[in-house]
Amino acid sequence: MKSTRVETKPYKNSEQLKSKARETTILGHHAKKYRLITPSESANLELIRDFIGKLAYRAGFNGDHVSKIQLAADEACTNVVHHAYEDIPAGPIDVEIVVNRDKFQITVSDKGVGFDPEKFAQPDMVEYLSKFKKGGLGIHLIHTLMDEVTFKIEPLRKNSVKMIKYVHKPESADKLRQQEIILRETKKRR
Length: 190
Hints:
Blueprint: E1 6-7, E2 22-26, E3 29-39, H1 45-58, H2 63-84, E4 92-100, E5 103-110, H3 125-130, H4 138-145, E6 148-154, E7 158-166, H5 173-189
Parallel strand pairs: 1-3
Antiparallel strand pairs: 2-3, 3-4, 4-5, 5-7, 6-7
């Protein structure tokens, strides 16, 4: 079993990140496990996106799917940076990726204050976009862009969001439309 555990400081680019994989058998499936632990700072979000993007390409996803996976993970990590350590000293973001032939699983964890994901209702996107609102879509984006999303919240101990994208799962026309709107609007606002 090869493993990646990289503790980082803010890096200027992803070339400074050295990575190894841990191969293991998970529930009878051959898988690789990768891990990146970095301080909870906005400066590290690009590093995390690059790390995830490279692994998603290696897993066999095309450019569109890699962008969706990166955006979902970026939302989860941005939530950690902006909210998890709001009233307490900043701690790390722990990103673990497990890849096998069927799925790409990302778990983003922190030891911050936590939140109740059930309190975030699905927004009316037409109304939201017509008012040119900014922010507040992170959880909706994650659910829309990924195939499965699970939250486990234990404030000040371990909060995590597990996001799964299946390698060969076709997406419904409705989900593809929602994803297209999200990606288009995200690009406009950057």
